[in-house]
């Protein structure tokens, strides 16, 4: 990735953060923290990597993405809107009755959403099912999945982990948004999940750990993961919950928080300065 | 002896798979119990045994379905329902996918596996899922027909599948439709509404017992519990003025609950419900359990007599 590409992705990620915060602030409450922490990985995937077509959101040979931490939907909606899957002004309707953009991802409501998620722990199994179906259909499409670190406490993830390596799902690449916080406190206080790398590796996954806010590292890790055949890949993203948002960064309370007009203005001003 | 019901299930899937390459089969370490090994041998690529992990099985099935596959995923009814309820509810049904979940060993047919494996609540839980279709075949002919219809139906289906043993109540040429009950016997005094391998024959026997006393009992096979064939239930309730539901399940939540809700709202009718009366399962032979939960033809006939006595 050259400097120009890097700057462009950083510019897009800033804009994605802006759109996401604006859409959440319109209703005055939402899942800020876990949306901000995955802005880079989703920006990289959708603006630089995945084979997708906003005009044909269900195109057969597209790459798929399952956002298992479905509460981060708003950041994905900002990306899909910017890509042109739907009009930007849909972002104004986040969580408004009758909206196409509910707080948690819904494959039937939102163009570009590949799987309905929201009950934590279920997305990785579904992503594996998609990966197996694509293999049956002899498609080269890739399946990306994003799970949370708190979400890793759900046992179903480990059932999926075991079966993905057993079924040699080399077309499945998952990310853990390791932002170190969950609703009730820090992960290490509430329920320790470390050593996460060792766990995934011992379940037979190709495993990497990188800085989840560094586009160059994300690109390198995704390329390396794709070079591995017959094994699923886990890329652990070391991230900061609420990253880039003045009132949310590093805050336990950022999981689902009220957002005032003043906080929004302050956060947007700070984003501009960066 | 005819084919085991489970073999009818597998044979029907094999037959469907010949012309439909989207049919997939999933098991969670109960392939030998469900009897789907023949499918694994014929279509190894489309067969997934996920080990003892039912929640993951339903999640994988949902993912397969989102790519246009038609997955049939099986486990004992207790685990298919209780263990995977949230996965089946959200990943399959709320996501509007097309997952066929099979719960085997309904009610007392779990026999020596006992209370841990005896589903008296699966239909009740499943009825709470919007738009889900719930079927319970009672014999070889209806099993083959209903599994074919389940595959064809666009949307998730819960199939309550009897496993061991064979019985044929229908003519091979009988046509079935999801959501349309079958009139096995017409009658004017009381309507016995039954579902499944165990209770449909008991209801027929009960009708014979009542006939000896001059009571003409109609018998309906309600193979689709959801959507309930409301028209048929209402017309027979109207005609006979008395209804007894017969299910190998709790009397709440399942067939009895569905019929009571319908009649309570639209045509208050004296009725009785045969089934487990708010009891957990236990070990025993089929005969022992039929008696323990008062599911026998005699129990049905007695319930009918009592209702008729109240009516007169």
Note the main attributes of this structure:
heterodimer, A: 274 residues, alpha/beta, Rossmann fold, five-stranded parallel β-sheet, two-stranded antiparallel sheet, B: 312 residues, 2 domains, 13 helices, 12 strands, 20% strand, globular
Report on the structure:
The complex is a heterodimer of chains A (274) and B (312). Chain A has a single domain (3-273), classed as Rossmann fold (3-Layer(aba) Sandwich), CATH 3.40.50.970. The model of chain A has no long low-confidence stretch (mean pLDDT 97). Chain A has a 5-stranded parallel sheet with strand order 2-3-4-8-7, with helices on both faces. In chain A, strands 1-9 form a two-stranded antiparallel sheet. Chain A has a two-stranded antiparallel ribbon with strand order 5-6. Chain A is globular. In chain A, helix 1 (3-27) packs across helix 4 and helix 5 (123-136) runs parallel beside helix 6 (156-166). In chain A, 41% of the residues lie in helices and 14% in strands. The longest helix of chain A is centred in the N-terminal third of the chain and has 25 residues, at 3-27. Chain A is built from 10 helices and 9 strands. By secondary structure, chain A is an alpha/beta fold. By secondary structure, chain B is an alpha/beta fold. Chain B folds into 2 domains: 5-161, Rossmann fold, CATH 3.40.50; 182-311, Rossmann fold (3-Layer(aba) Sandwich). Chain B is built from 13 helices and 12 strands. Chain B has a 7-stranded mixed sheet, sandwiched between helices. A 5-stranded mixed sheet of chain B has the order 7-9-8-11-12, sandwiched between helices. In chain B, helix 9 (196-212) links the parallel strand 8 and strand 9. In chain B, helix 1 packs parallel to helix 8 (140-152), helix 4 (54-66) runs parallel beside helix 6 (85-94) and helix 9 (196-212) packs across helix 13 (297-311). Chain B is globular, with a radius of gyration of 19 Å. Classes of the chains: A alpha/beta (274), B alpha/beta (312). Chains A and B meet through helix 5 and helix 6 of A and helix 4 and helix 6 of B.
